[in-house]
Design goal:
236 residues, mainly alpha, Four Helix Bundle (Hemerythrin (Met), subunit A), two-stranded antiparallel ribbon, 8 helices, 69% helix, globular
Length: 236
Amino acid sequence: MNILQSTRNNTPNAVTCCNLLSGALACVAAFHAFEPWWWGLQGYQVAFVLIALAAVFDFFDGFTARLLHAVSPLGKELDSLSDAVSFGLAPGMVLYNMLVQYEPESGVAYIAMLIPVFGALRLAKFNVSTDQSTTFTGLPIPANAIFWIGFTNFYAEHHADVPVLVVAVLVVALSLLMVCNLRMFSLKLHSLSVKENYKQYLLVLAFVICVGFCGVTGLAWAMLFYIVLSAVTKQD
């Protein structure tokens, strides 16, 4: 194998490693949740940025692999391991550290560990599945991470108004949604046709409206809309 071919084959894996690095740094930032950290942001806000950056790398590793014809079993496994950190462990650590801060005596913070545990189960189910190319079975782990970015942003600002039982119920419910058999539509557009992709366009509209009115917190509302829309529509 010459240098050019080796570079081509390993470029997608390098992008995936950037996803993993972003997720690992997000975990570090989560443990500085309410301290001023990078760019004048608090640690949990830096974690949000890093998880979002991981999502960008997660998109481009697959795109790069297809573009360079470098799809490989190694890349698939590395992608899942990276997603488990960036979209499972990282949001779990953000919520854990917030609950430690706001509910130090209750021990409820440990329920946040369900997020990475069920996220890993979700990825394992996806890896052995053969029918999730155009639809998903269960809530995708990146979508779950997006929900928790929105919710933890709201919780950081309004924790006194949110009963800890509500947080616990949400953790359990979203974790179970990741491994349930609910069919959910893919976020990818297969064409520009509105008729064929009306659900994706509705979700984009929901994102714009929710984030426009609620800021970062709107991400949680948009993900709830995604779940409901998947539940009430037929998945092809």
